[in-house]
Structure formats: C-alpha cells, structure tokens
C-alpha cells in the first residue's frame, strides 16, 4: 500500500497566531477515531514550536479525554507555563468542534556541554533483527493507514510462563517509511508517535482478549525522551503488561535503537472491555 502522506506531513502544523496550531494535512484514516500517537506527535510538535532551539523535550504526560474524529479539524493551543534557566514547561490542549479531546504537559531541558553527566541505561532486550525474514512478523499493523507512515515488523507476544506472566506482551521494530529531515523536533515527534504503537494490544494480550476486545482505549500516556535518535532507522519498541484490573491495563515500555541506545521509556493506562 502506498503512503498517502509522509510522517513529516503529519507533524507539520500551521500557526494561527497566539500559540494556536492546526495540522497541515488530514489523512483519510480507515478508522472511526484519530490514532492517539498522532495526537502525541502533533502536541510535541506544537510545544516545540514555542521553545528555544537549545531545549529538547524530556517528558510528556498526556490524557485522552474524548474520541477525536478523523473527519473533523483539530486545533492545538499551547500555554507557556514556565520558561526557566534549565527547564521549560508547556501545556498543550487539543480541541475539536469546541470540545476538549486531549491535553498534555511537555517539559523541556536545556542541552549543552554543561548538562553532560554520568551515562547509564538498561540494555536492549534480546530480539531478532528487524531485517530477518518477513515470515517472522505479522502484517496486522501494516494493513492500516494509521501506520503506513512507518515500516513495521511485529513480533508475537512472549509465551505465558508457569506463573501466568509474560516476559513481554508486545515488541515492534519501527522506522519512518520515508527519510526524515535532520530537524530534532521531527524525530522527537516520531518517537512520541511510535510510543503508542499498539500499547492497548499489549494490555489485551494479558487480558486474554488479544485482538478480540470490544473496547481498547488509551486513557493516559507518559513518555520520557532520554537520548536523541533518528526515527528513520530501525528502533525497537518493547512493551510489558504490568497489571490488568477493574477493566484497566497498565503497560510500561522502552524504545531502543538497533545498536542498543535507550531512546525513551513510557507508561500507559488503557481501558479494556
């Protein structure tokens, strides 16, 4: 399936003044709702448009408040909460037809030689390389227009252990389907987008409802960017289902490059019915 748009198209926003931004394009998704990763990425892009070039995002805390419809315009309004010497905080609210559908806070850290410190990271989980034979992967994600802006290689969930837990419930190799510009804002937005690639599915695996749940909805999402990476090179999303209770699933995850650099970590609560 050919791409209708590139990932860069999806995170290109037009300014309406007063820190209000709207998407430049509206792809024709084959779903009744806007993919949450798109909102995470566009909110990141909007927040970064209001910060200085020496600031890079280090965390996002987002809430999905209502279903956003792909057929209706979205508007992102950025509030400049704080501009400190080292840290900057932005709040991004997304409205559609006068209704708040999404809100997030995005925190930025000034980068430079004086911010370098001791390096430590968790090792990348052992996983087959992304370029191994296609027979090892499921075509499920690639069939959706939501995800055609990425090349995706999906691994099956880990088997259930004797105690009923799984080492991981979802692993996906991803990279932008088209080369991305060198702009760090685009790559940071791409990591935000990819951090929501099937997190709800990870919860459904341990709920015994893999691809069979009637409702799989993201409730909130937390993301921490650790190191800058190129999102147009193979990167591994590793997701672990931590808890399922009261129709909610909690998932944590990491994002590693092929050479083992820890790019980001994440957590999400989902609704499972």
Which whole number gives the mean pLDDT? 88
Low-confidence stretches: none
Q: Might you state the CATH topology name? A: Porin
List how many beta strands DSSP finds.
12
* Overall structural domain count: 1
Total of helices: 4
For the biggest β-sheet, the strand order reads 1-2-4-5-6-3-9-12-11-10-8-7
The secondary-structure class comes to mainly beta
CATH architecture: Beta Barrel
Separation of the first and last Cα atoms:
31 Å
Major beta sheet summary = 12 strands, antiparallel
Spell the H/E element sequence.
HEEHEEEEEEHHEEEE
> What is the CATH class name?
Mainly Beta
What is the helix content?
10-25%
CATH superfamily membership, which one? Acyl-CoA thioesterase, double hotdog domain
> Which percent range describes the beta-strand content?
35-45%
Task: Evaluate the radius of gyration.
Answer: 18 Å
Broad shape? globular
Question: Could you write a compact summary of the structure shown?
Answer:
The protein has 273 residues and is mostly beta strands. Helix content is 14%, strand content 38%.
